[in-house]
Fold this protein.
Amino acid sequence: MVLSGYQLIDFGDGRKLESLAGYVVDRPSPAAEGFLPTANRRMWLDADARYDSDQRIWEIRKPWPESISLEFGRVRLPFRATPFGHIGCFPEQLPNWRWLGETIAKLTDERLSAPRPLECLNLFAHTGGSTLALAARDAAVTHVDAAKPSVTAARQIAAENRLGEAKVRYLVEDAASYVAREVRRVRKYDLIVLDPPGYGHGPSGKTWRISRDLWPLLDDCLRLLPTFGAAMLVTGHSETPDQNEVADYLRQRITGAGQTIELATMANRLRIATGRSELIDLAGRRLDAGYFVRAIW
């Protein structure tokens, strides 16, 4: 899967300088704290747009082009300035999108005796990069996010990619509440993606705290997955829990004491990989962009 249209130019002093298909933006990056920029200062001063986190506004010095986008495989994700300093998509997720595509292919091959679209659930789905990576591989995706503007944007982007309602169902929902209902309905999915924030609120005002709420959500997600031929991707930016804690929890829940024959089957097939997402600037320096946990069984 080839990515085009994005380049991290430089980072430091809590900010990063990026090229979005040639349009240069300067915006905050907590991961860039403690580093010094290496690029010529003039490159920073000449940025086409700069986000001010104190005033929560973009300073648009040159009109933001409507047509610029991030491209990977068959998918195009438009770059758009959001009120919170984001750019509409997350380029650091490319390796995870690639893994999702490869995993869908693997799970599909294992089920050739009963061919059907794989059922995928994308929680805290934002504007839908993972959703499109799955839908582009002919999976049926349920896209869940608590923010209506994000879901509206995701629906529009999917339509622009001709991957609309036929393959994706969009829901403005609290992720944990939705998953709990699916457990009661005895629903099953083949693959689940989660990108939980450290803190947030659902549509009804329900508070989410990752240190408290991630673990019961993971338990419910495991109940939605079969004991053979399934996968889960968890990504995040929190310091705690980190990727090792999440991986250890999944491993313990699947391989723990008192398991059934079905859980033993899962444990024997279980493969978990962890790591850090990152962006690489023009000087070859690596900027941390959160963790990932990939599980397949």
